[in-house]
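Need tokens for this chain, all 144 residues.
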Amino acid sequence: MQLKNIFVEGAIAPSFIADSITKHATKTNIGAHNIFLGQVRADSINNKQVIGIEYTSNQPMALECMQAIREQIFEKYDLTCMHVYHSLGKVAVGELCLFVFTSSKHRATAIEACTECIEKIKSELPIWGKEIFEDDSYQWKENK
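Here are the structure tokens for all 144 residues:
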């Protein structure tokens, strides 16, 4: 079975998100969408300013893990569809790095499924972020 690729090189463009939303207008059995957008923050850590994050992953393992998460979410919730995209490579402060989009007949289902999916992504997917500081130094980011 071909695993769905969730990875996008660099930041996730707002136009990509808008296109994803537009594509669902013809699916008239959907009554609710829930969208989560993760954005890179300009944190200050030890008096150094974060200017971006560089994401890396064990991609084959991450795609298998995401497929398992997807199956768990669809088994638990009555979703019409679910889309997940995560950045790889450098993403600047203010840019989007995670896009989770759930759709269902009812809002509570879409919201709960989206929230659970995000928590599983953060705790289970082998994706790592290296916070890059303005002086070109870096540190590995903790998933929170």
